[in-house]
Design goal:
Elements lengths: L2 H20 L2 H14 L5 H24 L10 H6 L9 H14 L2
Helix pairs in contact: 1-2, 1-3, 2-3
Length: about 110
């Protein structure tokens, strides 16, 4: 990988970590797959970061299988709060309710 590619990958990892911190399983899934395709030959440090994000994605998938789509959303996260103010926000009422229920039952 060139230095330019490495820098591009690092920028994308910042975005992926943001999706993880927001609990946005759908965005993390979509963009992690794209990063894996676009940067298949990343170095060891970035490969470890990608693997860690993939493990987080698997945990999110398990939670959503049991508690419903959106259960991992962190409703207090500033980016989630901002998105909820947008017209046409993709976070549905059911997703928000799943996140509230999960947070009240399992998140301390």
């Amino acid at each position: 990988m060139t230095d330019e590619d490495t820098q591009a990958l690092r920028r994308r990892l910042i975005h992926l970590r943001s999706y993880r911190d927001m609990g946005d399983r759908q965005a993390l899934d979509r963009f992690l797959g794209k990063v894996r395709r676009d940067f298949a030959s990343s170095d060891e440090e970035e490969s470890a970061a990608i693997s860690s994000l993939a493990a987080d994605l698997q945990r999110f998938e398990l939670v959503e299988l049991e508690h419903g789509l959106g259960a991992c959303l962190v409703l207090a996260h500033p980016a989630v709060q901002e998105a909820l103010t947008w017209k046409g926000c993709r976070y549905t009422g059911a997703m928000i309710e799943n996140a509230r229920r999960y947070a009240s039952a399992y998140v301390s």
